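Sharing a chain and its predicted structure for anyone who wants a worked example. Both blocks are below, sequence first, C-alpha cells second.
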Amino acid sequence: MPAYSRGTSTNIIVGAAALFVADSTLNTTTNTVPSFVSTESFKSTLSSDPDFTNVGYTMNGIELQFQPDFGEVQVDQVLDVAKLYKQGMQVNLATTFAEATLENLLLATAGQDSDLSGSKSTSAGQVLNLSAGDIGECPVERGIVAVGPGTGDCEDSGNVERVYIAYRALSIENVTVSAKRDEASMFEVSFRLLPDDLTATYGKIVDRTHTAS
C-alpha cells in the first residue's frame, strides 16, 4: 500500500499563457493547427506560422469558463428535485489585451480583416473602419490557441507546457476603448466558444514536453 502523501506540488500551475488567434476557424479534419515539434515550444511553432497572430501582452491571463445548464424533474413524493438532466452547455474564454493596437481591437470586436488597412508608419496612417455591418452578415469566427506553463516546478520541468486549443471562437461581449490619464488602454474581450461540426467538441487541452533548452 502506498504511503500517504499530502499532494504533488509539481502539479500546481502558476503563470500566464501566450495567446494566439488564427485567421480562420480550426478543426480536427484539416491541418489548420500546426503539428507539435518535439524540439521546440509550441509558442515558437505558432510564431513562425503566418496564419496565427500573437496578441502580445495580456492582463490577468486567460480564463476558461464552462457553464452547463441542467433541467429538473420534480415529483410529488420528494421535496427536492428527483432528477437532473443536462439540457445545454456554454463555454467562454476571457482575457484582456494589454497591447492597444488596432490589430488587437479588430480581433476584440470580431471585425472583418478588410476593415483594417494601411500602416501607422505612413502619413495616411493605419485605419480601422468601425463598420455597422449588414443584415444577414455572418459573424466572424476565429480559432484560438494559448500556450502556458504545464507545471509549477520550473527547475526540473521547464520544458513542460499546456496548450489550450479552441476551434471556433466569437467575440460577443462589449468592448471598451478608453484613453485615461491614470490607466493603460486595454481591451477586455470574452470569446464564446462553439463546438466543431464533425466531433461536437469545443477544442482540446494538451500537456506536452519539448526538448528545447
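Comments welcome. The chain is about 5% helix and 40% strand.
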